[in-house]
Amino acid sequence: MSTLIGRICDACVTSIPVTGAAVSASLTPGSRSTIHATDAVAARVEDLQLDLGEGPGTDAIRDRGPILIADLSDARSATAARWPMFTPAALREGARAVFAFPLQLGAAEVGLLGLYRDMPGHLDGSSHATALRLADAAMFALIDDGFTSSDPIDRDDNERATDENDFFRTQVFQAVGMMTVQLGVSAEEATVRLRAHAYAHDRPVADVAGDVVSRRLRFRPDSA
């Protein structure tokens, strides 16, 4: 595990008015794995996006530019409608403002730097510029370290991940592969079906994926 990624995340918290930071690496287009998070909320905000398939990081990578939300709870904004599952879940976790910076080199999707605040607030020009510089540093650190899906997730000392984190994330990919055969759909469509089932039954995506891999749950075209 690169200690540089951890130092970059720590630098975000000390040099930018944010509460926490997380870096995730892109495994394949549309899928990421968390590499480091400064605290439990930062980790959970990133996990929510990976599980739900929506949120600032997802849009930042798709739109190839930063997504800056100064107040998630602002009823006058379109945020709630934009991310109907992520927004209330992130608020429950304690995130009040979220900022996402895609880590991209040319056409290559490298990963994401995600920041959050526990109180609403904008990033001023200087803070935004600092975040962009740290995002560039994180991107090159990921490239230099050659992160893959086998790399462990690194949390802070209060929430250090174990090998099970990688196991559960791998199960998601296995489940998606099985569902493409069961449903006769693309991997993207299978991922949407998996997330929708998890959300409808109020269960973590990893738990549903485990049921698929263990064949306790089978998706059928007429019932998925």
Structural description of this entry:
This protein is α+β, with helices and mostly antiparallel strands and 224 residues long. It folds into 2 domains: 3-145, 2-Layer Sandwich (Beta-Lactamase); 163-213, Arc Repressor Mutant, subunit A, CATH 1.10.10. It contains 9 helices and 5 strands; from the N terminus they run αββααβααββαααα. It has helices at 3-15, 40-52, 56-63, 79-82, 86-93, 125-145, 163-183, 187-200, 205-213; strands spanning 20-28, 31-37, 67-69, 97-105, 108-117. Strands 2-1-5-4-3 form a 5-stranded antiparallel beta sheet, with helices on both faces. A hairpin with a 2-residue loop joins strand 1 (20-28) and strand 2. Helix 2 (40-52) runs antiparallel to helix 5 (86-93) and helix 8 (187-200) packs across helix 9. It is globular, with a radius of gyration of 17 Å. The N and C termini lie far apart (38 Å). Residues 148-167 have low confidence and may be disordered.
Q: Supply the CATH superfamily name of the largest domain.
A: GAF domain
**Approximate strand percentage:** 15-25%
Report the end-to-end length measured between terminal Cα atoms: 38 Å
Uncertain residue ranges: 148-167
Question: What structural class is derived from the secondary structure elements?
Answer: alpha+beta
Number of helices: 9
- pLDDT average, as an integer? 82
Determine the fraction of residues in helical runs and give it as a percent range. 40-55%
SSE order:
HEEHHEHHEEHHHH
**Rg:** 17 Å
Count structural domains. Answer: 2
Strand order of the largest sheet: 2-1-5-4-3
Q: Which CATH class of the largest domain applies here?
A: Alpha Beta
Characterize the largest beta sheet: strand count, sense, and whether it forms a barrel.
Answer: 5 strands, antiparallel
- Can you tell me the CATH topology of the largest domain? Beta-Lactamase
**CATH architecture of the largest domain, please?**
2-Layer Sandwich
Count of individual beta strands: 5
The dominant shape is globular
